[in-house]
Amino acid sequence: MAGARLAAVEGLVRELLREDAPSRIAALTEELFQAAGSISEEDGSAAEVEEGAISLWNWAVTKHTGSVVNDEQRAKLRFVACRLVCLCEGSDPLEGTIRRQILMSMKTGKGWIDIGKADLADEFLEIAMSSIEKLYAKLLKGSDGEADTSVHKADVEKNLFKVLSYQAESAVAQGDFQKAVMCVQRCKDMLMKLPKEACYLSILCYNFGVETYEWKRYEQSSFWLSQSYDIGKMDVNYSVGKEMQAKVLRLLATAYFEWDCNLYLDKALKAISLANQENLHPAGFFLKVKILLKSGASDEDINSAVAEFLHHEVSLDFCLNTAKLLLEHGRESVGFDFLKSVPERFESSPDLGKFTLLHIEFLLQNKKELLAKQKVEEIIIGHYTGKQLLPEALNQLHIILWDRAAKHYEAKSYSEALHWYNYSVSFYIPGQIDQNLAKLQRNMASCYLHLKQVDKAKEAVKEAERCDPNSIFTKFSVYKIAVMEKDTNKAVEAVIEMGKLAEKPSQHEDKLRVDENIGTNLLSLAAQIALENEQQVVAIKALEYLSEHLQDCRQLFAALKCLVRLMLSKFMAENEEKRDEDINSMLTYLTLAHKRLAESFTEETFTGDMRILEAHWFRKVAWNLAVQFRVCPEKMRDFFLLSFKLSQFCPSDKAVLIAQKTCLLMAAAVDLEMGRRQVTPSEQAELLTQALQHLQACKEIWKVLKLTGDFAEDPTDTLLLLYEFEARSKLNDPTLHNLMESVWEQPQIEVKTLEIIASLAMESPARYPVLCKKALKSALNLHRTQTVIDAVKFSKCLHSLINLSLPTGLTDLDACVLQEVWDYFEDALSVVSSTDGYPEMEVLWLMTRAWNTGIFQYTVGKYKEAEQWCGLGMRFLNHLGSLKKSYEGHMIGLYSEVLDKLDRAKGFLPNGEE
Predict the structure, then answer these.
(1) Cβ distance 461 to 477 under 8 Å?
(2) pLDDT tens string 48-77
């Protein structure tokens, strides 16, 4: 009974034989292949297994013919079927069984070879060989005499020959040269009895030669090709034919040639000579010439080889290739003689122009320019007398003519270049519109410009504009002439047109490839030409467009630097009124520099060090411009902000942090200054909000910077405080009081800072009288703590505090307020009494305010208060200096009058009110 694995295989076979779906067939084939690979004799065998195997074999043949299974699937199914049949062989198989096994094993092995899996073929070819031996032994055992033996031997030799040839194929595929040689030799030995197989074996050896040649195993290739040739001539009746023999010999000669032409020259020549004797073929002639040239043969020998095929029918292309070969190897004498002789043979051929062009090319290569010109002139004459070149050949001629003109242009032989360009022009009819003609005219214009023939250059460019008006090349030609004529307006106009065209995708100009970066290249060249001709305005315009289109960071920054330098020199030569537009341009350049620095992180060729260097250069320029334009605060701010943004690409060392801090402080200061001007509320709010943003960024930088050293004398903290206070107070920011709480807690705040805060607290649109008063009081307290009071500063501070607390013109004041103000006057009187430097005008002001306050109290019937305040005023009178005399008499008189009035007023009062 069959084992479980064998039963599984049987089941898969039955399922496959019933299946029609290609996907399922593929899956079952793979399952069968895997399963069959693991079965062995131990799994048993059965008659039904053999029957199933034969059915599977026949099914695979049928399905392959119907393209249901591919070559690899057929090979796998043959593998399965053959494996199963081998299991059913038994100890004494019948003759038919052995013959079937031989057939199946051979075909299975060959199938693996054909799909490139020769290593899998060997097992089955060995089975076939073993089966052949069994068959031969069985036949001999049952034979009667020598005659039968011969018949049996012949019977098996055919199969043996096939198996040996398949083994040779497998060995070659696996690189086993020695085994392949042994197998082929055994096949050769059998040819005496199987002469009809000579053709097959010769072709097999040729195929081996082709394979090993392709693998560049020239020694093996030459062996197989020699074997193929020798086998092919063994029996004339069964030869492969002269054409095939010649083909073998040509490849043999090529193998020797490519293996080592110097070492195997004689063998290569012998092989190709034999090939040409066997069968004349252009390839044979060509190869012989090629070998002779490589060997350094004399011109006489080369001529003889060429003469051989001139007596036979060969194509024009063959002659063309031969001529190229001769001339490429420097055989000018033979080559030019050959070029002269060929046209007669192909006079009526429309392709003869190709040969003429080759003749011209090699005349030029050998510096025979005069002869080349004669040939070109002959073609021009033929063009107008009915012997035109084919379009392809004419295009090739134009390329030759332009190439020769270009060489003369590079050598600065502009007249000679024009000569060759004119040849090209000769083939165009008047009025023809063609992009190549436009390019031709532009090239001629360049030559005329170098020759200082401007009028002719203009004519050529005009013709180019007619043919191709929207070409950037044409605009460039217009530009060059405008620069040469110092026509700035026209040059700028041409640059603008070039800039617009550079934005469009690159196009092809009639088969002549336009470089993808041609727009930027031409704009760069335009800028260079303008600079060389000292046309600054034109150069600036060209560089502006160039910087818009350059993708390469290094080129872009070089262009921007050039632009900045040019614009700076332009500033120096301009009036103030003309600078506005140029300032805006400079801002644009620096903004672009910042944008591209930000984008440069994705460009591999632009390193971090490069980015830092460029950022430093541009930030310093922006800084210097900010300083230069102090008269224009808005521009100054913009440049400072750009300098800050650019510095963010630099390492954060101390110098850079200081620069960043200063930039942001200056930007905030400008925004605050602009906010103080007559602007709309919304504009003011926007400016103040911007200032706060700059200050916030500045604070963060300042925190880091303070960690790097001692900044005790640095005013940044004070400036940040004052700027932030101004912005928040004018924005009516609810966080202002929180800010001030931290201020009051500062132990070392300066008097001046408090005075400025007081001033800002009341500066429109801010109005914070409580904050103002608190700041002034704090300032006064600080004044008092000084060893020597600065009377002038003290007087100003007190003046502000009294003005805030005792507004002019108010009479109905709360007693608490009056008491508070009274204390201020007392403070003033104390300082005035103890200090000589109190400003006299301030004393006069205090006296006047005290007196007037008393009078105001009198008018509302507050006589006691009136007497107090008027008396206070009189006390200040005693401290007036030179002005005392002016006021003393008048004041005393008035004071006496007031006192009298007060006494009289008191008399009318009830006793309870005295």
Answers:
(1) yes
(2) 677 888 888 888 888 777 777 888 888 888
